[in-house]
Amino acid sequence: MKSVLGVEPPQQEMDGYTLYNMMLQPFPKKNPGTYKYQGSWEIIDHFIVSGTLLTGKGSLYTSAKDVDICNLPFLLEKDEKYRGTKPFRTYHGIRYQGGYSDHLPIRMDLFLKRK
Fold it and tell me: Interior CA angle at 106 toward 26 and 19, to 5°?
């Protein structure tokens, strides 16, 4: 994404002409990632936004603190092989498990300025 889109992590000073990857920031340990592969959590789901959304100059805005990984208990199951938890998947191979996804959802709050 860096080489093709030129995305940057959210910073103190942002401009309206740059694209920012909202997931390139430290998240609390309670939200280690969106996908677990062989025991390691990774963030492979992203929000790419224009700097205009982050400068606060437009009528629609957000900030880095308004982005989160949703790891609610019902979205997780015990990871017997690698310890801890993992996303509660819909399918494991061809076997239906009744879960939600093999990725955890990401959330971004957007705000609208009143005129």
Answer: 65
